[in-house]
Write a structure and sequence with these properties.
Structural class: mainly alpha
Number of strands: 2
Strand order of the largest sheet: 1-2
Distance between the termini: 36 Å
Number of helices: 9
Length: 236
């Protein structure tokens, strides 16, 4: 019963996944820019950080231990948020583990949707903004966001290409849709943290895109229903 419910939730979440993706692009376009270029300077910095990380991961030895450390610390952080006791953190080249006294879907899937090192950059940006406004060197912050988010994305894709008990526990479709939604929404949030884009603007575009996505989905189902009703063998 639980698996069937998660499957239905995943199907219902597909339009929202599309809406979140479009909202992220909207947030990128909202980054303040001194000129009329197609992409704001901050967006270019984020893309440059992402690209540099791609190049380094392709040319240098893979920093597996660094990813595993972030992966297990993410389990631990989310476990602490839900009141779990954390113990026996282990990190190695072939994987890692952490012992938690409780678990749920967020704790289990957290490493796949919560970029630990990007979170550190975003926290540092929020602390800096508390003392200095506007945030100094916004392009540098977005470069760091792009670099660390690329690190998270590449290793998350690599992990999901292998059999993952974390993913199988809640069903692949549900896990993949959930991971996509939170990753992309999180990327938009990291941009807000590191730029002058306002949270209310993020909320506004998110609400607009979600309403549009579900309205379009409803129109498609209405069209399919009317098309099926018109089939000759379904006529009375």
């Amino acid at each position: 019963m639980a698996n069937a419910l998660r499957f239905l939730l995943a199907l219902a979440g597909l339009p929202f996944a599309w809406a979140v993706t479009r909202a992220f692009l909207d947030v990128v376009r909202l980054i303040p820019s001194p000129d009329d270029s197609i992409l704001p300077a901050g967006a270019v910095s984020g893309i440059a950080g992402f690209a540099l990380c791609l190049v380094l991961l392709a040319l240098l030895p893979s920093p597996v231990r660094l990813y595993v450390l972030g992966h297990e610390l993410t389990h631990a952080v989310w476990g602490l948020l839900f009141g779990a006791r954390v113990s026996r953190l282990k990190v190695g080249l072939k994987g890692g583990s952490v012992t938690l006294s409780k678990s749920n879907v967020l704790i289990t899937l957290a490493p796949y949707f919560f970029p630990f090192y990007t979170m550190l950059v975003a926290l540092a940006a929020l602390v800096a903004r508390a003392f200095v406004s506007p945030l100094p060197c916004p392009s540098a912050w977005l470069f760091a966001v792009g670099f660390t988010w690329c690190f998270h994305c590449i290793f998350t894709v690599r992990a999901l290409m292998q059999a993952q008990p974390d993913v199988n526990e809640y069903g692949r479709l549900f896990s993949y849709v959930f991971i996509w939604i939170v990753n992309v929404a999180g990327a938009a949030a990291w941009v807000v943290c590191a730029t002058e884009v306002r949270w209310r603007d993020f909320g506004r575009v998110m609400a607009h895109r979600a309403a549009s996505a579900y309205a379009s989905t409803g129109n498609v189902f209405a069209w399919l229903y009317e098309s099926l009703r018109s089939l000759p063998f379904l006529q009375g």
